[in-house]
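Sequence of DoxX (Roseovarius tolerans).
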Amino acid sequence: MALHDKATLRLQDRLDGLALLVLRLGLAWFMFLWAAHKVITPRQYQNLARHFDGVDVSLAQVYAMGGVQIALCVLVVIGVFRYFSYGSLLVMHFFTVTRRWEGFFDPFAVNDRGFPVNRNQVIDLAVLGALIALVLLIRRDHFSIGGWLARHDRARWWM
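Predicted 3D structure, token representation.
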């Protein structure tokens, strides 16, 4: 392989890693906001659990869920335990998507004031796709602690 070809591949590899860094940080921020709201407005999440899932959860349970989700977002930001942390965000978001199917079948619905009522569900699908892509491309996620350790053949359990 020519020197030019190797340099091009290295550049592309770095650009892929940079793209995944942007994707990872954006997704972590998106998920962090939802998790932080559980801590800031726990009663809202009690009402959502009752409305969507038909279950009553205590304030302590809402705080615990928010805390665990915030911790996972921190793991994603720094890129450690990548299969676990990225996969956990994917599973959590997939759970949210499965609870709101009805909006996917009517993405252009508006209420009596003309407000689009199902646009969050459409956004949810885009985020789900991005989370799936992040997990599928985890080996190209070079700008993370797990990626650095993998490149330097360090402890595999950090990946």
